[in-house]
Amino acid sequence: VRTTREYRSGAIPTAINIAYDLLENNLPTEDRTQKIIVYCRSGRRSSIARRTLEKLGFDQVYDFGAVRNWQGELLVR
């Protein structure tokens, strides 16, 4: 749940970016049982996004927190 600029500057491989303010209208999947891991620049938006997705019925949402917690390479897009 990052801005387009943040996402383009470096993203976790296989990540799909959905801007935080568009999340409710652009759900990552219709399958409410699919595992979803959310992250953002600092961890604040990902925490809110996790709660939002859970309120929408997703039951396997995990908050990774800040992208800086990722120990692998980031893809620049």
Topology, element by element:
Blueprint: H1 4-9, E1 36-40, H2 44-55, E2 61-66
Parallel strand pairs: 1-2
Description:
With 77 residues, the protein is of the alpha+beta class. It has one domain: Oxidized Rhodanese, domain 1 (3-Layer(aba) Sandwich). It is built from two helices and two strands; from the N terminus they run H-E-H-E. The chain has helices spanning 4-9, 44-55; strands spanning 36-40, 61-66. The chain has a two-stranded parallel sheet.
List keywords for this structure.
Oxidized Rhodanese, domain 1, 77 residues, single chain, two-stranded parallel ribbon, alpha+beta
Write the CATH fold name.
Answer: Oxidized Rhodanese, domain 1
Tell me the number of structural domains: 1
Element-by-element helix/strand order: HEHE
| Widest sheet: strand ordering | 1-2
Mean pLDDT: 93
Determine and state the CATH class: Alpha Beta
What's a quick, concise take on this entry?
This protein has 77 residues and is an alpha+beta fold.
